[in-house]
Amino acid sequence: MNQWINLTALGQIVVVGLLCGAGLPALFAVGLWLLSDPRGRMRLAAAGEESSEVHAGPVTVAAAGLCFAIVLAAIGWGIYFIVAGS
Amino acid sequence: MGNSTLLVLVVITALAFDFTNGFHDTGNAMATSIATGALPPKVAVALSGVLNLVGAFLSLSVAATIASGLVDTGLVTLTVVFAGLAGGILWNLLTWLLGIPSSSSHALIGGIVGSTLAAAGGHAVKWQGLASKVVIPAALSPLIAGGIAALGTLLIYRISRNVPGHDRERGFRIGQIGSASMVSLAHGTNDAQKTMGVITLALIANHSVPADAKAPFWVILSCALAISAGTYLGGWRVIRTLGKGLVEISSPQGMGAESASAATILLSSHFGYSLSTTHVATGSILGTGVAKKGAAVRWSVAGRMATAWLFTLPLAALAGAGAYAAASGIGGSTGVLVVFLVLVALAAMFYLRSRQSAVHAGNVNEDWTGGAAPTSAEPVGAGVGGAA
Question: Hey, is the C-beta of B287 within 8 angstroms of any chain A C-beta?
């Protein structure tokens, strides 16, 4: 840490920023991928759309749910983080 | 006491600045959602306005930085605060007219520093605070946000490459709206506080509150309302540049960009940096453009913005110094009133000029043709000044 740049803060911003800013969208993408695997585990079939509907197994859906839950929890934590202030 | 007239003028000017801050920065959060069609333009600005309002009440840690970290508050008078705000407003209006997403924070800080310099000289400015809390973070933040956005975009595209197009589009639109909402919230917590800090500074200068006071509730409320109203108005010119001008953006990219912006802004404000959401958002959008194969980034537009960023602090400072010189030259409340009226006249002029090539919810997404305003917005036969 020097007087011009707070390297500790900078390091934390970069690391936590990468985890939240890039990691969470990636996790969201994993969730989407689990829900719509082209091998036919599940199609989020819109009404009238013709598709061979093979529903995802409970494990896959649960895994996708977990991904989205982590993303939501992180957003909740982010808001708490603002409210609590420093 | 003449001071109360002066104080009222300062508060009105501060809220006017807050309002320009709102519409100048709507695009930071919502430009990508509007450009990809995830949200209809009017809905996007309404959502952003509400979230800015909520955000303004959430946290109060940045306000202290503006009020006490950058200038010697003991040397700041009401006229200094007023002149600084006038400088910030002028810069915001000019860049809005040109459709350049420049930093409202830098406009405000530049204006205040300029008027302080003109009033009290170099010793009244805390140069180290200015460098370490404003200038250095401003240089680093677009790079950090851009890097995060680039990595996020790479990951998103890699992971979702086998997801059928329809599901992917729908999923990422939802993600994009969520992440853009976080940016709006963060903007409210950050930027509304800057004006709260300035009004508090004015109250301190007027000895209405003690020097270590926090922002009173009416200040928080009025600032929250002003920035929210400005956001709802929508700075369509800037939205267009960010959403259509820099990169032709898709939903997954929009989510990548907004997530990176939200994370960077929230983390930095935790450490008390009065970061420019504009710099962060632009960095993120560029990052997401670089990371997607085949996406064309218009570097000329980015270069034009970066140039404006470099000039923001000094030119807003110059405007602030000029406003101070004029106000104190005439003297007293009269001087401030005269400058205030000049400011109103200039603002009206900028507004009228913008009507000549209006950008609005209806044409904000038209194809980028080089200028801030779509070609259809040009009045018939108007060839002069088309660059605006």
Answer: no
